[in-house]
Design brief:
The complex is a heterodimer of chains A (370) and B (246).
Chain A: E1 5-12, H1 18-24, H2 28-39, E2 44-52, E3 55-62, H3 67-79, H4 83-89, E4 91-94, H5 96-106, H6 118-132, H7 138-157, H8 167-179, E5 186-190, H9 194-205, E6 210-215, H10 218-228, E7 231-234, H11 235-240, E8 247-250, H12 261-270, E9 276-280, E10 297-301, H13 302-343, H14 353-357, H15 359-362
Parallel strand pairs in A: 5-6, 5-8, 6-7, 8-9, 9-10
Antiparallel strand pairs in A: 1-3, 1-4, 2-3
Chain B: H1 2-23, H2 31-53, H3 56-75, H4 92-126, H5 140-171, H6 178-198, H7 204-227
Helix pairs in contact in B: 1-2, 2-3, 2-4, 3-4, 4-5, 4-7, 5-6, 6-7
The chains are: A alpha/beta (370), B mainly alpha (246).
């Protein structure tokens, strides 16, 4: 009886170009069906699928070392992708290395934006989906649960997730520095382009209730306002009603400043005690730089935001080595717990009964309750 | 940190209580006691304000202020001179007046700290330095909000203290010394700052600097106030408060 193997096989943004990742991406329905297909593969005892825009990874426990290759072959066949071609990009780790990789992924160390937190939720969702489909067992359960604890520990005890690294999120962070809570803050988007949209979404996700979009193209303003659950205004009104807002995000394509000092000063006369924050994402700039000299007015332009994001990114990068060292210790401990379970010898097919008979999975449909 | 501050607060309260029992009155008989009471007042307020605004950085500052005041008062034995047991003439209203006044100084101390934090946050936003130590500062809006509330509270407390004291001063105009006038001037200055702030005439950085400067002035006035005190004339009963002599 040979020892079972804990493995990960897949493709990630590190080695796989975007065009290839597009071909390998699995839709939600395809993911569920393929998951069932994998679980029914001979020699695959446990399986979980992590499918995000930056990675498709299969974490599994195989009865013997060939299981990972069978998973890869099944995936390539499903995606109609040449196995030899896949070999050029693939990630294939086993044992302790696979454990350490999952730890790094969950902690955000393996992400395109180091330290981002979204991946942690995606790993949790992947595990929950695998559990619901009854394709996890003693090894994957142990590994994933311990990985979540370790990832939380790293986030809490290092600076890896401190500071925002995207311009839109930095803008929100600045608003938090000025207003504390954003629930009562009134935000105006001057311009309804891509930058304005991203920043609007970031503000919305942080609890802003009063969001208004003003654009020279009123139709576009209304369209974006509908998407964001905001109000729309003709551009000229946005300029006139400046005093009604606490945060003004400017991203127009205007060739000259659309917020001159006089307009900002007039707005402040109507609200002298309440701070006014300008986030100028436009190039050329929408807000006259002299506005920054006004009392109780704070102005940040694209360069300022990019500098803050870059600084935060640098701070995160500086923490990577420390995080990896922490995770290596955790990987050692976890592997000490998992390895005996793999090598102690397992029954011919130790999967839960629902996985063995297979009809529900064989046709690709989820199991009851899954 | 909150627990540590609370423990220190309880120990200081125990110390003040012990001193109060020894002297038979509110422990405000000399500079040492006044400084100790001011530190205790500032912490009392932080324990309320800090929870409300979840401002841990304010806790660091308040604890530092209280520690500094306490250590300085302990390091200067001259401040803890012989007790003037008859300081309040056994009159609880005078004690109340003094306690309120010192407590209001604690409020103004916390206001000065909040104002310093405001100035730091203002600097960080204007100079676009938001990382490192600055990232722990509360928002500028919250700091301004706390400042206005503390100022209002301090003005009310010191005003009430002066109102209680004035009942006696009106009966004994000779007791109205320069020291008392200084305290009244402190109140007028703070009340003026509050009025200007509420009318939108004194805002943001200028408001914060004013609060810091006023506290420095208030602290400077403590010396003359303390040295200029003399025991008030004996008052027969507290019931006399309602019917001052014609």
């Amino acid at each position: 009886m040979s020892a079972a193997v804990f493995f990960v096989v897949g493709a990630t943004h590190h080695t796989t170009p975007l065009a290839v990742r597009e071909k390998l991406a699995l839709g939600a329905e395809a993911e569920a069906a393929f998951h069932a297909e994998l679980a029914a593969l001979p020699g695959v005892r446990e399986i979980a699928l992590l499918n995000t825009c930056n990675r498709v990874e299969f974490y599994g426990v195989g009865a013997e070392p060939g299981a990972a290759a069978r998973v890869q072959a099944a995936f390539c066949a499903r995606q109609q992708f040449a196995t030899a071609e896949f070999d050029k990009f693939r990630l294939n780790l086993s044992g302790r290395d696979a454990v350490q990789h999952l730890l790094a992924v969950a902690a955000g160390l393996d992400s395109q934006i180091v330290g981002e937190t979204e991946i942690f939720g995606q790993v949790k969702e992947a595990y929950a989906a695998a559990q619901a489909r009854r394709s996890t067992g003693p090894v994957l359960n142990r590994v994933f649960q311990k990985v979540f604890q370790a990832a939380k520990h790293v986030r809490t005890h290092t600076q890896i997730a401190v500071g925002q690294v995207s311009v839109a999120n930095v803008a929100v962070e600045l608003a938090l520095n000025v207003f504390g809570s954003l629930s009562a803050a009134r935000v105006l988007l001057l311009g309804a382009g891509e930058m304005g949209e991203k920043t609007g979404r970031a503000f919305k996700s942080r609890g802003v209730s009063t969001l208004t979009v003003a654009s020279r193209r009123l139709g576009r303003a209304m369209e974006l306002a509908t998407q964001l659950g905001a109000a729309a205004l003709p551009f000229e009104q946005g300029e006139v009603r400046l005093a009604e807002f606490d945060v003004v995000v400017c991203s127009t394509a205007a060739p000259i400043a659309v917020v001159p000092v006089a307009a900002a000063a007039a707005a402040m006369k109507k609200r002298p005690a309440r701070p006014l924050l300008f986030i100028d994402l436009a190039l050329p700039r929408d807000v006259d730089p002299a506005v920054a000299e006004l009392e109780n007015v704070f102005l940040f332009d694209l360069d300022d935001l990019a500098a803050i994001a870059e600084k935060n990114r640098g701070a995160r990068e500086a923490e990577v080595a420390r995080c990896r060292s922490l995770l290596a210790q955790r990987a050692d401990l976890l592997w000490q717990q998992v390895e005996p379970r793999l090598s102690s010898g397992a029954p011919a097919d130790p999967r839960p009964p629902l996985l063995r008979s297979g009809p529900g999975f064989a046709d690709g449909s989820p199991r009851p309750g899954g | 940190m909150y627990v540590l501050i609370a423990v220190g607060y309880a120990l200081q309260l125990a110390g003040l209580s012990q001193r109060g029992r020894e002297v038979g009155s509110c422990p405000l008989g000399n500079t040492f006691e006044i400084v100790q009471f001011t530190a205790w007042s500032a912490i009392s307020l932080y324990l309320v304000v800090g929870v409300t605004f979840r401002s841990s950085i304010l806790g660091y500052f308040t604890a530092s202020l209280a520690a500094a005041l306490t250590l300085v008062s302990l390091a200067l034995p001259a401040w803890d001179g012989p007790q003037r047991r008859s300081l309040f003439g056994g009159n609880p209203w005078i004690e109340f007046h003094a306690a309120l006044a010192v407590f209001s100084y604690g409020v103004f101390g916390l206001l000065a700290l909040t104002s310093l934090l405001f100035l730091l946050r203002h600097y960080s936003l204007k100079s676009k330095r938001l990382g490192g130590w600055f990232s722990f500062l509360p928002s500028i809006f919250d700091l301004d909000h706390i400042g206005v509330r503390l100022l209002g509270f301090g003005v009310i407390l010191l005003g009430a203290s002066l109102a209680v004291g004035s009942v006696y001063w009106l009966r004994d105009t000779a007791a109205v010394t320069t020291a008392k006038l200084l305290t009244a001037a402190v109140w007028v200055a703070y009340a003026t700052a509050l009025g200007l702030r509420l009318r939108g005439r004194l805002l943001a950085k200028r408001f914060a600097w004013t609060c810091v400067a006023l506290f420095a002035a208030a602290l400077a006035s403590l010396g003359p106030v303390d040295s200029g005190r003399r025991p008030p004339p004996p008052v027969r009963t507290t019931a006399d408060l309602g019917s001052p002599p014609q």
